[in-house]
Amino acid sequence: MNLVPLEDPADPRLADYRDLRDVQLRKSLETEHGMFLAEGEKVIRRAVSAGFAPRSFLMAPRWVDGLADVLSATDAPCYVLPEELASEVAGFHVHRGALASLNRTPLPPVAEVLAGARSVLVLEDLVDHTNVGAVFRSGAALGFDAVLLAPRCADPLYRRSIKVAMGAVFTLPWTRLPDWADALPSLSALGFTTVALTLADDATPIEDAVAGLDRVALVLGSEGHGLSGRWEQSADRRAIIPMREGIDSLNVAAASAVACYVTARR
Amino acid sequence: MNLVPLEDPADPRLADYRDLRDVQLRKSLETEHGMFLAEGEKVIRRAVSAGFAPRSFLMAPRWVDGLADVLSATDAPCYVLPEELASEVAGFHVHRGALASLNRTPLPPVAEVLAGARSVLVLEDLVDHTNVGAVFRSGAALGFDAVLLAPRCADPLYRRSIKVAMGAVFTLPWTRLPDWADALPSLSALGFTTVALTLADDATPIEDAVAGLDRVALVLGSEGHGLSGRWEQSADRRAIIPMREGIDSLNVAAASAVACYVTARR
């Protein structure tokens, strides 16, 4: 174990852990440095078992024992700080105790993610990390094989997404689509029927839309405005979850859970 | 319109609007005074149309016009404060502009809420207001008729629940169950088949569990531990949402959406 006791919250070696509540700062910092943050023993274990290499750890002394096996299996330094100083670095009370900074791995090509997949989620421009995490969790639980993200969809490896996904962002294969405009026709060309969840007038009930299909790509839009016109129109089919008269929407986490359930049982 | 310009954020007339982010304080304050808070023009309109009587309003000058019709239809004072002072009272930036304090109405008897209902949600001890709101929203959208809450379930009229529910807490009839221990047998006696969502070994897939039933009460447990043993065992049936091998849970909002969808289409 490479334990490194620190006493100065301003130590430059703690740069990965600064101001975790500042979403804008974290977005650019994490992308720039090709890293992401895992919070809590369970999530750290899942990230490491999924093959992500730790850059470093940050924790109060009382959490070291519980992660001893993980810490022993790497050369990455474990910065040990008194609890109140750890919270000072992170900018909030680190109640799950341990933090780890891990290297992102290169995103796999779309073809690799789709190999062998029969049910795939395609997320356009979700902005809320909670929703991205929730969609991954539901997709994994309900039998989906992979997730593809539009270039502007929120990051699945953001701390909040990871937490809500309960590890599914590590286990479910995913990648970014290189191109937004022709993303859905490209998927159709690869043998997937793209089914867009929408409130469009010509949408058919989801159960009918997916019935009997082999390879399906279920396409979800953003929280506010739903799918772009381009994606809505370039999908092979438009589907709706039948709702009570006068009510026109479910939140995206609920809608995706229902759509995944129905699609997985087609 | 009873417009009352104020300039002192410490004015005692603003007591209903203090420290909106302090969950513990708000819980006792709102219960004690029999009030709840609505945030934003849309939510305020929905609360007032649903018959809740406003006690007062609090907003910056630029929001008055948009709510003029609502303000004109009541004697309740509208406290008008500069935006930064309004935020000082509330303890956060009031970005949706307008706040209203409304009187709670007496909770209806269970029999009244159940009259004519065919599909009912029963929530045991959900602690998260976001989840309570999400369950109401999904239940309303997917065709449920009413919601019953165990004595300790989180408050549907808490600001956060209301926001997430998108108004469903105003439109879907709901009440508290007077008694926890025999709640489910009492519902069975009223002609409902109680179906508990659980991971119990003897649980059957939800589609089979609800097939062909007339009146159904779908029973959901808390986020962390699920249902109490008492409720799990006293339900008429135990049901599970079939999940991928090795994954044992969906979050309660996703699970309830799927369960409502399946149950509504039984």
Automatic annotation (TrEMBL), chains A, B:
<dbReference type="GO" id="GO:0032259">
    <property type="term" value="P:methylation"/>
</dbReference>
<dbReference type="InterPro" id="IPR029026">
    <property type="entry name" value="tRNA_m1G_MTases_N"/>
</dbReference>
<dbReference type="InterPro" id="IPR029064">
    <property type="entry name" value="Ribosomal_eL30-like_sf"/>
</dbReference>
<dbReference type="InterPro" id="IPR001537">
    <property type="entry name" value="SpoU_MeTrfase"/>
</dbReference>
<dbReference type="Pfam" id="PF00588">
    <property type="entry name" value="SpoU_methylase"/>
</dbReference>
<keyword id="KW-0808">Transferase</keyword>
<feature type="domain" description="tRNA/rRNA methyltransferase SpoU type">
    <location>
        <begin position="120"/>
        <end position="261"/>
    </location>
</feature>
<protein>
    <submittedName>
        <fullName>TrmH family RNA methyltransferase</fullName>
    </submittedName>
</protein>
<dbReference type="InterPro" id="IPR051259">
    <property type="entry name" value="rRNA_Methyltransferase"/>
</dbReference>
<keyword id="KW-0489">Methyltransferase</keyword>
<dbReference type="InterPro" id="IPR029028">
    <property type="entry name" value="Alpha/beta_knot_MTases"/>
</dbReference>
<dbReference type="GO" id="GO:0008168">
    <property type="term" value="F:methyltransferase activity"/>
</dbReference>
